[in-house]
Amino acid sequence: MIDSHVEGVERTDSRLSSRPAPPTDAELELITQAQQGDRRAFGELVRLNREGVINVVYRMCGDASLAEDAAQESFIRAWQHLPNYRPRSPFRNWVYRIATNVALDVLRREKEAVDVDAVSLPSPERGPESMIEGKERGEQVQQAVLSLPPASRAVLVLREYEGLAYREIADALGIPIGTVMSRLNYARSRLREMLTPYLEVL
What we know:
The chain is mostly helical. The chain has one domain: Orthogonal Bundle (Rna Polymerase Sigma Factor, Chain: A). 65% of the residues lie in helices and 0% in strands. It contains nine helices and no strands. Helix 3 crosses helix 7, helix 6 packs across helix 9 and helix 7 packs across helix 9. The longest helix is centred in the last third of the chain and has 24 residues. It is globular and about 55 Å long.
């Protein structure tokens, strides 16, 4: 029974060996202008990537208000370090790396466990929630995701919620692709273990 529910979580990645695609011409133009100090160009980059960054940091820390603050901090850091950015891969990958680091900083600062029942969960179009239907079941998945170690959680979020290929995740997090695979396998295995008892009573 569990196999049918985790089918979406255990997708194979046909782009495993491919390199991250370079920025599009339009994105590269915005990046170049922003690196020259054009705040309007950077604002457009923020607009294009804001939703994804908020989703990443929310899935990492589980608190909607913290996610907003962390997303803002992510873009502040991106602006500060923009002169050092070399656009060999999409801006999204680079800013996701910053966002993940900010989320990890937030988690280190937060001493108390996150109460996921106290926040309003979004309804993502993809991700582990697709395994089971309904808000209550989705909350069970979210609680399970939040219980994962931060390093494994980051890989899972980028793969299952943001749809990045393994190579893109490796690029975004600055880790070897083998580490991406091992962390993702661990995260999927732990989700299976944690969710099986719940799914079996549905």
